[in-house]
Amino acid sequence: MNPEVNELFKDAPRWNPELNFLRALVLQAPLVEEVKWGQPCYTHEGRNIAILGGFKNYFVLSLMKGALIPDPQGLLSKPGPNSVEGRWMKFTSVAGVEAAAPYVLDFLLEAIKAEELGLRVEKPANEFVVPAELEAAYEGTPGLREAFEALTVGRQRAYLMFFTAAKQSATVSARIEKFTPRILRRKGMIDCVCGHSKKMPGCDGSHKNYPGTVTC
Fold this sequence. Notes:
By secondary structure, the chain is of the alpha+beta class.
């Protein structure tokens, strides 16, 4: 077990016993435990497979490319309406995890197999590509998913095009982190956030005339 994850769970205000129980189950699969995006992440040969996260009313096991996993029981769900690749299992108790234990391991093994085979999720025509890094950021930042999905289609498209243009996963994550405060304010990439623009909602550079104000 990764000592960084031990510290994360020790400081977790909610779902500590439940997440540790789920964590022990996940570690039965041939995965490496790391910390990414401030959350426990599980990788196979350097590729992200799953992530654990706790929320106010539930905790989850997220599978980065869960759309590739057979799920005849319907145990996996989309984290959000625009999710293409990611799927998660939601829990509210240890008993729920115990009941789903055989499926959890099967899903993880299927996810590993999909990565080893190089499988990719086919994107529907005109569907936005939501990168795994953004799905992971949703789990590490409360309210980020809701704020992003509240944006207009055009604003979502602009962000997603910018994020996915990066070739390296680390760069994608860095771009998401940079724009997270703006997204949480439900602003687009070129929207005014200082409040001084004469061409709302866009930024016209007026913030330059107000030293010390928030820069758009």
